[in-house]
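User: Can you help me understand a structure? I only have the sequence.
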Amino acid sequence: MKTLAQIGQIRSETANDKGFAIDTTFVLFFLAVEFGQMLGNFGLDTVIFAITLLMMLVLPYFLPSDEKQSFGNWLLGRSLIAGFAISVGAAFKQSLGVVLPETFRFLPMTLLIVTAMLSCYIQFYGFLKLRLAK
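Assistant: Let's start by predicting it. Here is the structure, written out as tokens:
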């Protein structure tokens, strides 16, 4: 009968998740672009987007992985990505109707939905994939 330490060691040997936050980074980027588009409108939807953006900034750090960097470095990197994406969203809003057609207004939300679905699939696959017992 194996002890809990041995089971944890086997689990960490079989898990291979380098770059565990790449998929959530894309979701964070497109969410921040959409938030940058709504920045001028102060309403309930903007508040909900801000709360969701803060959650996507912090919570993926707590996903299970073998290699973790310090929380401060993690938060700084993701904050820089979110800040850049918010500025891209604000610039994108200014270019609608002038440089880009008005129908492109829905492009960031469409890309956000697609990346969120792919991220969910990747995360659930990582949680539920079968690992062979040794």
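Now, to help you interpret it: Confidence is low (pLDDT under 50) at residues 11-18. Helices lie at 4-14, 22-37, 44-58, 71-95, 107-128. Let me know which part you'd like to focus on.
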